[in-house]
Amino acid sequence: MQQLETLIRQAEAEVGRQMQVCNACRYCETFCAVFPAMTRRLSFDAADAHYLANLCHNCGACLHACQYAPPHDFAINVPRAMAQLRVRTYEEFAWPRSLGGLYRRNGLAVALATGLGLAVFLVLLLAMRGNLWHEPLAGNFYAVFPHNTLVAMFGIVFLWAILALGMGAKRFWQGQSPGDALPGARAEALHDALTLKYLDGGHGDGCNDEDDRFTLRRRRFHHFTFYGFMLCFAATCVATVYHYVFGWHAPYAFTSLPVILGTLGGIGLLVGPAGLWWLNARRHPLHGDPSQRPMDRGFIALLFASSLTGLILLAVRDTGAMGLALAVHLGFVMALFLTLPYGKFAHAVYRVAALLKYQVERRQPNRLQLGAD
User: Are 180 and 41 in contact (CB under 8 A)?
Assistant: First the structure.
């Protein structure tokens, strides 16, 4: 615990040092929300450092524009300093706090091992029951795993993930003391989050590629991933309404709303994560924090595997292989939700909170400017 505290304080101090230099230069003031928020401060305490770190979208534009970037003696690399502190934010505000160390262990090997382990467990369970390979069941998943069993298993894991992430965000927000969030601030923060406004490099041309060219690929692959995830979630919600409200039980036709939403979401969760993996492998070594790439790739791999196995399940649901495909799919989905509160997904929660604080601040008088006047 003492070592973690030391790492957090060091990361906070480095963000503060770099922001002092940037505050004197201000060349990047129009690039993204970080720099206007920076100009409202003369010094940067721990809360300010965590706020700015989570406001940063790691687009790399400021690094490529900076005259003080490495190999300059000032060694200004805002994307890396912010990325290194962001993961410390996740650890410091994790709930329960004792599980914060999981962020450093949640890498590609752990993610895949968890998914494969749960998949093998469910496959063996079906084999012991004699249900691993059976006559076609016309897509009736609940003939393989009872409905109430699935609801209990995934309901508990999902609620735990929501609780853990929600408590962490609450602790982060309370430490910021931003003031009241007016409806306009909430709406604009949500708009900025859903459109990934600050992945445009501040000029609309996108992030810098590894060879310094501007590109919108990172923004587009993020959109495929996020909206693919939301479409899959919508499919689950619609199916829940069908089941409990209208009494329409699965399996649903290929032309039904839950299946259409799930299929479109699954395609998005193939294209988006595949693209993000490709970009992650090609990123310039000065972009962000390379030590966090295993955590990034673990989350990307679970999203991709959950989607791929889900689409395979849809394709074979009317065959005798449905039970095997269902067990493998459920294993990866369970692994995704088990690791959700202590992996890369946390960045979305804390970034929305930081964007909300930014919009609240924008609606308040700038005391530094008032003092200058």
Answer: no
